UniProtKB/TrEMBL annotation:
SUPFAM superfamilies: TNF-like. PANTHER family: COLLAGEN IV NC1 DOMAIN-CONTAINING PROTEIN (PTHR15427:SF33), EMILIN ELASTIN MICROFIBRIL INTERFACE-LOCATED PROTEIN ELASTIN MICROFIBRIL INTERFACER (PTHR15427). GO terms for cellular component: collagen trimer. Gene3D superfamilies: 1.20.5.340, 2.60.120.40. Residues 136-275 form the C1q domain. It comes from Mytilus galloprovincialis (Mediterranean mussel). Keywords: Secreted. It is found in: Secreted. InterPro entries: C1q_dom, Collagen/C1q_domain, Tumour_necrosis_fac-like_dom. This is C1q domain-containing protein. It comes from the Eukaryota.
Length: 275
């Protein structure tokens, strides 16, 4: 029988194979419905599919290796068990008479034991490569959202929820809660655009776990004002990012508009690379 450690490696291979397969059926559906074949997003999905296919190929190779090595180990264990049975029988009979052990079997056993240890070590080394591949796997994360209605008489301390989800690759943005939760530690590009009505007085701050990392300020402008803020930032897995209104001095005349095509005010981000 295989040791618990060996079985753990085999189970790991199966779990990793499943992990690689579970990404992005919902992402593709959202992209198809919302972007109507936008080329940049299609390219993003194609790159993700290629990465997954490469990982699945590697996992398939290692799965075959695991099976081959397991069969070899089982064969060697059977030989060892057979010889152990002979030795036990010999010990039982030694008190009543002479007992002979096939010297060839003993020599063969001495040769096979190092082989078993070598095979186990090789298997461990190969599976370690699979584990490193899993750790280094960087998912494709990208989202684009906008407002589909005007936010009138805006108050301070309101979290902005961009409810028109154009695409959400990786499902890291929640339109219901209005926040983006980083699924992986890495460097992210975040950008947001705010368009407000004339004479609005408002600050929109980008928060990470409650700490400001960016802001847009609109104060008593004479016409509609559209401003974009973009930042590069390092996010740790499960960091919470959202936009919030602050310092609204005249709520009665402060509104954030969505525009004719729901793209005057929007929030977007993408994971550039994993740490």
């Amino acid at each position: 029988m295989l040791s618990k450690a060996s079985l753990k490696y085999v189970i790991f291979g199966l779990v990793f194979n499943y992990f690689c397969r579970k990404i992005d059926a919902n992402d593709k559906r959202l992209l198809t419905n919302n972007m109507n074949g936008t080329s940049s997003v299609d390219h993003l999905l194609q790159r993700t599919d290629q990465t997954i296919q490469n990982l699945e190929t590697k996992v398939s190779v290692y799965d075959s290796l695991v099976l081959s090595m397991q069969n070899k180990i089982n064969t060697l264990e059977t030989s060892v068990n057979t010889l152990n049975s002979k030795m036990s029988s010999c010990v039982s009979l030694s008190a009543s008479g002479p007992c002979s052990v096939n010297e060839t079997d003993v020599t063969d056993l001495k040769t096979k034991i190092p082989n078993i240890e070598g095979i186990i070590q090789m298997l461990s080394d190969r599976l370690l490569k699979v584990e490193k591949a899993q750790v280094s796997f960087c998912p494709t994360i990208a989202f684009m959202t906008s407002l589909n209605h005007v936010l009138s008489h805006v108050q301070s301390g309101v979290k902005l929820s961009f409810d028109n989800v154009i695409f959400n690759v990786g499902n890291a943005y929640s339109a219901f809660q209005g926040n983006f939760v980083a699924p992986k530690t890495g460097i992210y590009f975040l950008t947001y655009t705010i368009t407000s009505t004339p004479r609005s007085a408002i600050i929109i701050r980008l928060h990470r776990n409650g700490v400001d990392i960016g802001q847009i300020s609109h104060h008593d402008h004479s016409d509609y004002l559209k401003t974009t803020e973009s930042i590069l930032t390092q996010l740790t897995e499960n960091d919470d990012v959202w936009l919030e209104t602050e310092d609204v001095h005249h709520p009665d005349r402060t509104s954030i508009v969505n525009g004719r095509h729901n793209l005057e005010s929007h929030f977007a981000g993408v994971l550039l690379y994993c740490d």
